[in-house]
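Let's sit down with a protein and look at its sequence and fold side by side. We need material for that, and I hope you will provide a protein of your own picking. Once you have written the record down, we can walk along the chain together.

***
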Amino acid sequence: MTPIAVLTGPTGTGKSDIALRLAREFPLELVSVDSAQVYRGLDIGSAKPDAATRAAVPHHLLDLVDAAEGYSAGQFARDAARAIEDIESRGKVPLLVGGTMLYLRALIGGIAELPESNDEVRAALDAEASRLGWPALHARLAQVDAVAAARIHPNDSQRIQRALEVHAVTGEPISSLQARTESPLRREFRVAALIPADRARLHESLAERFGQMMAGGFLDEVRHLYGRGDLTIEHPAIRAVGYRQLWAHLSGDCELDEAVSRAVAATRQLAKRQMTWLRSMDGIHVFDPYDAQSFVGVRDTLGDALLPPLGALPA
């Protein structure tokens, strides 16, 4: 079966531009791999493609949920699998494009089916942590799940709580459940990653890009979300890079200049985390987005994954 093409990389490296160029040569439909673009109303700050671009090239997994709702990596993997099946059923070719590494990992490697959060168990763990401290609960985790404890920092309260919660609810270590993962698609993935060699140039580009977002009305977009009255800084949509910092400004926590500086710094940190994750991923093909030949390299590497299956009806 034909491999599934993936174009990924850190934020601000021109993934969308290359994807749209590829769509002029191949019968592609794009599947977004972006945790901010799934939310309605998060447009400018998520660099969501505009209406004209979406009319020219079909895009999938945009505007799926309201900003007040949650959306998980597991939901993404299932939605992406359905989108890929739909695209291929019409003789077109899916190209996954984006830099949310948790989503990409969930689709390629699978994600564990873990229980929903349990408020009663979490409240009990919070109460214990208040008395004993999270390092003490980390020591308890080491007794029931040494594998999970080894990869979780003793002060990482969120992950310690989740691991102990899963064990309390299921009676099984979270590491064992996570090991029993399976991708919703039993397919080969052909992954091209844009990773710049010049980190300073990337940082300059990210600052310039954020300035363009601000000039394009990003603050007004966040102000509209803020004015709804049903959203807080705790909602996943508002925790997205850029949104979180401008929200803090609107809340009176900092001046606008400080919020912008924080947002640019957070964007750089996000890019660094994305590159770190990609460098640990096996079997990817890396290209420098600032190399004039990067488009040709991506196109040639993805190769047959960009071609419609044999017997597909022409568009």
User: Anything to note?
Assistant: The two ends are 21 Å apart (CA to CA). The mean pLDDT is 93. Residues 119-177 form a domain with the Histone, subunit A fold (CATH 1.10.20.140).
